[in-house]
Write a structure and sequence with these properties.
single chain, 13% helix, rod-shaped
């Protein structure tokens, strides 16, 4: 800086926000560099955003600066964005903002019966860790559903099955912690057993036929004995 510029100071009001909600993101670590005329740079600040996602610096000298993110908040992707700003006048207040996206992963759920046959038309609910239903999905012709979820803890549960199957209402818990991860899950449904009777139609017919035959044989024997006595 020139001797004159050393006497001139400005203020940076920086905010780190969620790209989807616009809410401030706390605990993001940032570094601010002063850009020199010769192309080199000096680190002038290193710190983390407060509970509102803000950093305020009141004693930056006049000049050009860049802001980079060195460590993201829990649940967020590290941003590669470089934010530039310049303080031109003494007492100037400059506002700067940087956004972050949450970590997301994909969960794939496959629904089959005990023989491995895919089951279509089954309704499955996705819940947060507190038991709030977030969304529902129906398995396709391959017995599959595919959902993209943000960082957090969840469980899924079968809400409604299809005819011929027993509802599997087990709660299956899982976490989204790694960006871009594919989580594979399988739900197995048992078929409703067909009631068994002690005697089916074929058996009844066979028994009746047997009784009829035995009855006929009995009549023939009796008739033969009767003729022999004569």
């Amino acid at each position: 800086y020139s001797a004159v510029n050393l006497l001139k100071k400005g203020t940076l009001e920086f905010t780190k926000t969620d790209v989807s909600t616009g809410k401030g993101i706390a605990d993001t670590k940032l570094e601010i560099y002063h850009l020199k005329d010769d192309g080199s740079s000096d680190l002038v600040f290193s710190g983390i955003t407060d509970k509102d996602g803000k950093i305020t610096i009141t004693d930056l000298f006049v000049g050009k600066f860049t802001i980079i993110e060195t460590e993201s908040a829990t649940g967020y992707r590290l941003s590669d964005e470089v934010v530039s700003f310049e303080i031109k006048e003494n007492g100037e207040i400059v506002k700067a903002n940087m956004t972050n996206e949450k970590i997301t992963s994909t969960i794939k759920i496959h629904k089959v019966d005990e023989n491995g046959t895919a089951i279509a038309g089954v309704e499955i609910g996705i819940y947060d860790i507190d038991g709030n239903l977030l969304e529902t999905h129906i398995t396709d012709e391959n017995g599959d559903i595919e959902i993209v979820l943000e960082y957090g803890s969840y469980y899924y549960q079968e809400i409604k099955t299809v005819e011929g199957y027993i509802l599997n209402d087990e709660k299956v818990y899982f976490d989204i912690t790694v960006d871009g991860e594919i989580i594979q899950k399988t739900i197995i449904n048992e078929t409703i057993p067909v009631p068994k009777t002690d005697m089916n139609t074929v058996d009844v017919v066979s028994i009746i036929a047997g009784i009829t035959i035995l009855g006929g044989i009995g009549v023939l024997i009796y008739d033969k004995k009767k003729r022999n006595k004569k």
